[in-house]
Amino acid sequence: MASGGSPVVGVMQNVRFAVTPAPTLPGASPTLGQAATPADLKQQVMTWSKVVEVAEREIERKSKETQTLKARLRSVEWEALSRAREVSTLTDKVKEVELKLAEKETQVKTILGGLDIRETQERSLDSLITLAIEDKVSWEKKYRSAANELELKTQYLDDKEQFWCGEVEQLEAELTRRDEQIGSLKMQLLEIRKMQESGSLAAFGRQSAALKERSSLISGQTDLAKKLQDANKKSQQQRHQIESLESQLDESRAQNGVFTSALIPILEDSGLFLQTSNAVEITESLKALFDSLMAELRLSGKDRNKSITTKAAKELIAIKEKTLESQQKQTKLLKELEFTTREAEKLTRRIMDDEDERKEEGNESPAELVKGSSIGELPIPLSESDDELLRRDRSATLIQSRFRGHLAQKKYKEMFEVQTAASRVIQKHYRRHQDSESERTEKRAITTIQAGARKWKANREVKQKRTEEANVLKGELMERAAKTLQRHERARQTRKKFKEIKEVREEKAVMIQKHFRSRKAKEDLEKRRSDAPRVEDFGIFCNDQTLTAGSLIRACGRPSNGTTLCMFQWTRRDQVTGKMCDIPGETTPEYVLSPDDVGRVVGVRCTPTNDKDECGLPATDVVNNGSPIEISDEVKKEITNLASKGTVTYHTQLVKFGKSSIPTQVTVTLDKKMVTVTKKEKVLLKMKWETLPRVDLAPQIPTLLMLCATQGGADRGAKDVHLNFRERQERDDCAVLVRHFSALAANRPKSGFLSSLSQKLRGSKKDK
């Protein structure tokens, strides 16, 4: 910065200059009409070499795509091989099911071969046959489901093989088409730079699609593994079910044996029902027994005629219910037998008592009879005729009693014979019914077993044919898999070598590109600096020897390189961040320093532009060689006067005080302790320096000062006080004084207990 007059011819304002275009320099770049220099030819050769390198990279990328397509083909072959393995595992499972069916059939044959004529064994065999038939039906269903699943799997594999064959053909066609494209790309090296971005994007999309397809194939393999695990779990569950069914068969056999062993003696001892005295009651009881047996036979026949669709669990429940019913019937029969035996015993006792009495009466003599009849009476003399008559009467009564006993025994024998004959007839009919039912069940079991055996043989033949075909297909697939593995290994080795070569070439290319870009950036920056508009000999000038608040400073320079317009912006250094911040509204070449600039560094920034609205590098400068603006001599005198006198007085106008905005004339007094605002010797406001009052200036009104307390301890309304001074210089001096004393108060140590204690501690530390 220079003092006195400005050395520059004129000050540059925000106006456009009429500048003539500069002539072409000898070192400038050649135009289209001029001949090319060796440097340009060298640069063209370098660009063409880069184009060739890009073409080679494109060819390498296309070869990579062909390799990815080949890898997809190999993955398809691997999937077909895995499908064949799955088919083989399913056939093994079907064989296991067939073996289990054969075991069950052998069990049924052994059960049928060991059938006896006895009723106990027939009943046990009936239950075993029904369970075996149900088990056979369930295994047949499982076998059918397994066969259907195998057929579906084979059909799916056939469809998949056809689909992948079509895919392979499409991939081969794609490979041929890509080879043709590579040949065409070799002939079109000049257009590769324009198509580079689109080609790289397409390659990236194809690579992403190939990766997605590979992930889907891997997920399919995992799903197949999960299905195999599920099939193994199901086979284990079936084994557990078979073991549980065998245990249930053993339990049902034991229960049937107990039932038959308890029922046989009851049927053999059924003749005790015939020991009743009344023939009518016996016949009625026999009829009721016969009806109940016939009803049971009908119910059992109906139950057997029903279709066997229940499982082993339901059959066990039915057997338990039947055993409970049989136990209830046994208890009822036992009670009836006990009742009949008691009645028969009573009848026999009565008959025996009657016979004994009659025997005793027949053995007594006539004299004893006369004595017995005449006890306590006088003896009556009897004649011979009376004795004869009495003897005859007694003999007649004895004969009649004996005859009645004979008739009773005869009737008892007849009733017993009738009861035994009826029981034999009932037992005969029941046995005949059991024989017919057993024959029917045997015939049904034989027919079902024969049908199942024929079906099993037919399915076995079909499976053998399918296994032979699968083995042939498996051999072919193994050969193809070996070939694909070898090709994959060769391709992997070639890819590894190509990757190493590519990494080396890429590293070299990156280094070359890095150096080329840095060199090009430097050249562009130098060219931009040389061609851009700029301002030369830029600086800040002032007529005052010392810069204070109110000094006028001016920024100017000499435009060059077609500069037609300069934009100015004055800046001020922030005390917190230390950066230069723009002063709002100050965009002219001249600037008047304000009290806000006291103690700070002020600078300016000038941005040149040309007719094409192109901006050049901004020119900057700082006032007073980067030193802050000092306080003026007048303010220093007032500070010394205030120190000697103790007060400084300003007569101003109070524009706003709190909520009131009525302008009034007041007196502002500054002393060493506070700021006082009075009106006609009436104090309106007292603001101590300890409250750290803040001063704000309005650039729109050069004489306005806004005063505000930042801490407590001030009066009401001290947060919003606006003072309007008569002159700007007076306002600036007052603002500088207020800021000076508030800064002193802020830096002054506090007089409290804690502050004194801290000062003592600091002094002791310094002494140490």
TrEMBL record:
Key word Coiled coil present: yes
Keywords recorded for this protein, A-Z: Coiled coil
Region (Disordered): 228-249
InterPro entries: AIR9-like_A9, IQ_motif_EF-hand-BS, P-loop_NTPase
Top-level taxonomic group: Eukaryota
Name of this protein: AIR9-like A9 domain-containing protein
Coiled coil: 52-107, 330-364
Entry-linked SUPFAM superfamilies: P-loop containing nucleoside triphosphate hydrolases
Keyword Zinc-finger set for record: no
Biased composition, class Polar residues, residue ranges: 234-247
Domain AIR9-like A9: 565-619
GO cellular component, one term: plasma membrane
PROSITE patterns: IQ (PS50096)
